[in-house]
Write a structure and sequence with these properties.
Blueprint: E1 2-5, H1 11-19, E2 23-26, H2 38-48, E3 50-54, H3 58-66, E4 71-75, H4 82-100, E5 105-108, E6 113-116
Parallel strand pairs: 1-2, 1-3, 3-4, 4-5
Antiparallel strand pairs: 5-6
């Protein structure tokens, strides 16, 4: 399973996912870094079968209207510090991986994982 972490989320999350054994890149790893356009992010996600992890609801609209990105994890925690975000992923990573085997759009808040059909 491969991930692409969007600009509003910390590089630390990408490094956590890498350390957990997942092929993960952050937008800062891309040539245009955090200035990479949504269209470029979608194209990369499709081309490399990467699950986009973002807080940006524009990607929800894109997914539902044109089927891009490849798969989407929307982080709906509001403001959260890096340690809390990492702990949230640590607690839920296995469940997320299992859910993404069958679903393409998942939302995670501080206390729930919502699978969208």
């Amino acid at each position: 399973m491969k991930f692409l972490v969007d600009a509003q989320l910390p590089v630390r999350l990408a490094r956590f996912l890498q350390a957990s054994g997942y092929d993960t890149i952050h937008t800062r790893d891309l040539p245009n870094q955090n200035a990479t356009s949504d269209n470029e992010i979608n194209a990369l996600s499709i081309r490399q079968n990467r699950i986009l992890i973002t807080k940006d609801s524009d990607f929800v609209n894109s997914l539902l209207t044109i089927g891009q990105p490849y798969k989407l994890l929307l982080i709906a925690t509001g403001n959260i510090n890096n340690s809390e975000l990492e702990a949230l992923f640590s607690e839920n990573l296995q469940s997320l991986v299992e859910l993404f085997n069958q679903h393409f759009y998942i939302e995670m808040s501080r206390n729930a994982i919502i699978v969208h059909q």
